[in-house]
Amino acid sequence: MIVAEVVGRTLAALGVDTVFGVVGSGSFHVTNALVAGGARFVAARHESGAAAMADGYARMSGKAGVVSVHQGPGLTNALTGLAEAAKSGTPLVVLAGETTDARSNFHIDQDALATAVGAVPMRVDDAGSAAGTAATAYATATRERRAVLLNLPLDVQHARGVPVAGGPPALPARHDRTLARVWPDGGAEALAWMLIRSERPVFVAGRGARRARRELEELADLVGALLATSTAAKGLFRGSPWDLDVSGGFSSPLTARLIRGADIVVAWGCLLNAWTTRHGALIGPGAEVVQIDLDEESIAGHRRVSLGLAGDIPDVAAAVAGALRPEGSRPSVPVLRGYRTRVPADLIAAERAWRSVPYEDESGDGRIDPRTLTIALDDLLPDERIVTTDSEISWDIQPCTWTSPTRAAPASPRASTPPASAWPPPWAPRWPAPIACRSPPSATAAR
């Protein structure tokens, strides 16, 4: 068994069941080893499409996306998809052959390339460490929500590998700090006290909170918080009477007014960047800001915060709720308190979405107003759906008018978006008719 096969078999044993890519000589053996280990290989027409598919797969499945590409130009072709995944916090592992001979036309500084777009470069340096390095790359992607480039030098790939006996190697131990549910110590109690004192709390959940709905709703019930999301997490609280829909440039007038009226805004797995806050306009004067994220370095990256906590979102939310409830008690029937006593739920239901805001339909002359189109599609499609769109100006109307049901996750590149990105992936349908692109005021404000 050669080193490339050890890497592929190790990843398959760790749970990788799907790999996307364009196979070349530098990725042939590792891809075959993944397939031999039980993974399904999905071939793409272009490496950028492969990276985009792996990104979408990771977002929808909750697993790490895996991409296999050729050395040099195979990796540069995948760069747009890698950048989007890195900036979106998508767990992704890119397996790339690597030419270490500087005289080769395929030679580039692949580490620098990965670092430039925010990915984590790693390398299999020798046969003895191949399995352990593959496990470290997988652990970094899944635990830290990072995009990882695992370089596979051609000369090392073909060396005799060391088969892993008795299954895959154990994943590396987490850093001591991340073993705690909430860091720093006492952080959960501090946030609980801030929420008790608040009168108009708002929670804004991002992609990092997509699997924490139950914990966040239980905590929100305890303090009377209204619930909003970033565009990436749209639909997370669908069905809740206190769901404000999207915070930011895509907020309806009512949602924007209520978020700006908050006396404390708590961001859960959300960066609170310019798009989510309308360049800060949605953070009211005097409002306290709290940010919770698994990645400590993401906290206060876009704006100053009153309190920052590091930890898994479900764990932090549960710890704060536990600090608010008597020890041993269980969640009770929600009682109106906090912001919920100041705004009726029926008003939120009627005006939280842009599709409820009157507009003048500008369809005509063979063109369709995008607001009319997306509202019609929203009504026609089943509740259980996954919607994949391109991004930037051409589809900025979609987050405004689309009422994503709870499990209908939007799969759209939002972190690093050129005017024409690799999305939709090659397998997604494209619209044959021209579409007018006039965005509502909120979409314009997001720029």
Written overview of the protein:
The protein is an alpha/beta fold and 447 residues long. The chain has helices spanning 3-13, 28-36, 47-61, 73-77, 79-88, 110-116, 130-144, 154-157, 176-179, 187-197, 213-223, 253-260, 274-277, 313-324, 345-351, 370-380, 398-401, 441-445; strands spanning 18-21, 40-43, 65-69, 92-98, 120-123, 147-153, 201-205, 226-229, 243-246, 264-268, 288-293, 307-310, 387-388, 410-411. The protein folds into three domains: 3-171, 3-Layer(aba) Sandwich (Rossmann fold), CATH 3.40.50; 178-352, 3-Layer(aba) Sandwich (Rossmann fold), CATH 3.40.50.1220; 353-447, no CATH class. Helix content is 34%, strand content 14%. Strand 7 (201-205), helix 11 and strand 8 form a beta-alpha-beta unit. It is globular, with a radius of gyration of 23 Å. The model is unreliable at 175-180, 406-410 and 419-447 (pLDDT under 50).
Describe the protein's topology.
Blueprint: H1 3-13, E1 18-21, H2 28-36, E2 40-43, H3 47-61, E3 65-69, H4 73-77, H5 79-88, E4 92-98, H6 110-116, E5 120-123, H7 130-144, E6 147-153, H8 154-157, H9 176-179, H10 187-197, E7 201-205, H11 213-223, E8 226-229, E9 243-246, H12 253-260, E10 264-268, H13 274-277, E11 288-293, E12 307-310, H14 313-324, H15 345-351, H16 370-380, E13 387-388, H17 398-401, E14 410-411, H18 441-445
Parallel strand pairs: 1-2, 1-3, 3-4, 4-6, 5-6, 7-8, 7-10, 8-9, 10-11, 11-12, 13-14
